[in-house]
Amino acid sequence: MDLVVRNARLAHAPEAPPVDIGVAGGKIVAIQLGLHAEAPSYDADGRLTCAGLVETHIHLEKSRIADRCEPETGRQPMAMERVSAVKHTFTVEDAYRRSSQTLEACIKFGATRMRPHVELDGGVELRTFEAVAALKRDYAWAIDLELCVFPQEGLTNNPRADALLVEALKQGARVIGAAPNFDPDHAGQIHRVFDLAREFDVDIDMHLDSGNSPDDMDIHLVCELTEKYGLGGRVAIGHGCKYSTMPVAGLQTLAKRIADAGVAVTSLPATDLFMQGRDQTDNVRRGVVDVNVLVEHGVNCSISTNNILNPFTPMGDCSLIRMANLQAMVCQIGHAHRLRELFMMLTERSARLMNLKDYGIAVGNPADLVVIDAMTPEQAVAENAAPLVVFKRGVRTVTRSRAELHHPGT
Known about the structure:
single chain, alpha/beta, Urease, subunit C, domain 1, TIM Barrel, 13 helices, 17 strands, 32% helix, 20% strand
């Protein structure tokens, strides 16, 4: 064996005694108590261990641009317009540099799989796609990237965006997205994206239903097309802010519809908190979908970061566990089993959303392992616990020392 991670408390069974995880050739080859093997070892000391955190929705290429965008004025953030105004300054080198900083921060907080969402239009052409594709190659030692391309600024009214999507799919993008909120023809964009997904046999992951009321939701058409084309399990949507404005009974009914269609939902609490409710000056609505309710009615859900240090979210440190903690705060999640479910939305449920067949701590799977400074998933979420060590295919990629108190006289 090449490595043994000893005394690991498995996230999917934290009540069970800690086990030893044997690694050889980058894969897990043994999981058992008291594994006898002559190999380098890491002692997890009974702490929570999972198969790496999974970031399903993040914008690497437009991160870290807050300082070059015009500041917002008044209550309306005008985030898309402020980003669009500086896109012409994005070179491949610039996008690579900023994206790599954000990607490295994600890695340090335990992410080992990621779906970056890369927007394509005439302002950036394929420059940012090229940058993120280069990151996929250069950081394969620490994280696996699956690129999703989408038209942020419209598609039915933007032939150039359509041509760029086709070209990126030809160059290997494995997921296609959408942003119908910014298209004069919501349904037209959604239909076109489904057509492209079928033509190139790729999954779908859309930005959908941001807004301040449950009016004119696009999720119904997405569910209809998912069922029509037999794409259940291959379609996801992010945001879903409108669902947070629905009465409980209506949300439960919608959840069952989404679950029946096989559409997954990603909550993006930091961005949605920052962007929603801008039409209010007091008693401001939160705009964050309650994914616990969705899961409890059969929907697969994930929690992700979305934006970092740009007009959509001018803060962030790339910690997924912090996002789960924020989700719990906003939606007032306090029961241990519901906090545990939020942790699963960073791990097993996110892996299911991305259709990762080799995810999890199981013999034969890649030895992607993260040891977290907690004893249970619910503790990790409640206390915003930090990853202490990360292994990618059995090779250590991150080490974080625990903070120590230096008492007087010791």
